[in-house]
Amino acid sequence: MATLLLLVVIAIAWEGAKALFGIPDQKLPHLSAILAEFGAPTLGGSGPILAVALFQNGLVTLGEALMGFVLGGLLGCVLAIVFAASRLFERGLLPLVVGSQTVPILAIAPMVVVGLGQLGAPDWVAKAVVAAYLTFFPVTIGMLRGLRSVPLDALDLMRSYAAAAWPTFWKLRLPAALPHLFTALKIAATASVIGALVAELPAGSRYGIGVEIIKAAQFYNSNPPHLYATIIAAAALGLCFYGSVALAEKLIVRERKAE
Amino acid sequence: MPNPIANPQYLIAMNAPIIAIDRVTKTYDSGGGTVTALHDVSFSIQAGEFIALIGPSGCGKSTLMRLVGDLDQPSAGSIQVKGKPPRQARLDRDYGIVFQSPVLYDWRTVRKNVELPLEIMGRTEPARQERSRAMLQLVGLQDFGEAYPWQLSGGMQQRVSIARALSFDPALLLMDEPFGALDEITRERMQAELLLICGDAGADTTVIFVTHSIPEAVFLADRVVVMSPRPGRIERVVDIDLPRPRDIATRESPRYFELVTEVRESLRES
Fold first, then answer.
1. B116: phi > 0 → left, psi -120 to 50 → alpha, else beta; which?
2. Which of A29, B12, B174, B177 lies in disulfide reach of B100, CB 3.0 to 4.6 Å?
3. ipTM of the prediction
4. Residue contact A151–B119, C-beta within 8 A
5. Residue A256 is nearest to which of B93, B107, B116, comparing CB atoms?
6. In this complex, is the C-beta atom of A170 within 8 Å of any C-beta atom belonging to chain B?
7. Which residue of A has its CA nearest to B71?
8. Tens place of pLDDT for every residue, chain A, 259 residues?
């Protein structure tokens, strides 16, 4: 409800600015034109309407992002568990992990795509790897924080039961870390979509939202609403992914007290 | 059953303390210097005794409890629990521990919290359920097994914590200010309940109870160990000769007030 209201406010501001400052359609098209663009036919009339085309391309990107999300999520969890278990590994590896995230993804993506392409990996692998590259970092940090959030008394209790490391992890550390993990996964969900989009550009792919954005940008002068429509589709994609993770969180962490 | 008189060795075994603390010192490194939490403490506890450790902050009462429970190791001296080092006693699951905070797992129901140690100890599902039902009955929470901890009041949460500690029938119950976070009315009720529970669970449960409340220590304990700080040491041991079972009448008896005064004065001297 609040979201709907906000959308209306943005729409008014958008059209208001256009009217007030006389911004030409070339720079800021009418919202109605952007909405209409979703219904326009593609491929010079031989393809489906844009909404359907974007949906199909969106599925491709979503698949890549999902693979990257799973890959990065697993890597992030494993790193967090290693760091939580060993201060030595944390001191040695964490700076590298942090450093990896300050390298611009735009520089990394072509290297990964070309490198993996030469090794003969399928196209989607490179995109999933780039998505994973953006995904694993928030998961590592969130999961590590979660694993460290266990109260000392709870650990002492496990110790008094003479519990081995594995039950202590499975019955205490992991469940205690879940709320932190899900916060990280929500960040990772949107990051993985960005990773997949960016990786589509140097890969010379034929399908994907990233591909659509590039194509629309090239023809921006002749048809500005098209680019806006693809951007909205990309945002919707991220939103869907985020929503799925939030839903999973509700189902899995539902019995917790509201924090 | 061997005849103790015919078998003197058995007699000796019966009188051997369940806990023997021998010249124990514990020091910590803190920033610049070392802090002596406990200095040269010796003390023995008989099986079935209820021992209260009392003293101001920094007297090492919690530290002493943690050393007995193998949650920490002494810097010098030795501790024997049932004739074993504390580590072995811990591995044999001789300790049930209750902290000031109930430390319940939010993601488990009350029943599942009580069953946690049993799961870790590999008991079967039917055995666990039977035990948790009995324990929840014991602490008066039989109708709350499927509730989540955060749905219960503080006093009820602490009862769950006690049920969990007793679930595997440990020889020793270690309690670190278990009622410290409760209001006065709940606290008095919990004290009376604890005595009933320990009586019901078997009079052979030995309890070490850390507190900073004088009336609480006197009401509960067979012996009150008065400790003093800098360095932590035992100042005096006060025998509490109040008859059992103890109830509201105990709290109003003249002897109770005498003992409370005695403990208070020992604390002032410390």
1. alpha
2. B177
3. 0.84
4. no
5. B107
6. no
7. A156
8. 788 899 889 988 888 888 888 788 777 888 887 887 777 777 766 677 878 788 888 888 888 889 999 999 999 999 999 998 888 888 888 888 888 888 888 888 888 888 888 887 787 888 888 889 889 999 999 999 999 989 899 999 999 998 888 889 899 999 989 999 999 999 999 989 888 888 887 767 778 888 888 888 888 877 888 888 888 888 888 898 999 999 988 888 866 654 4
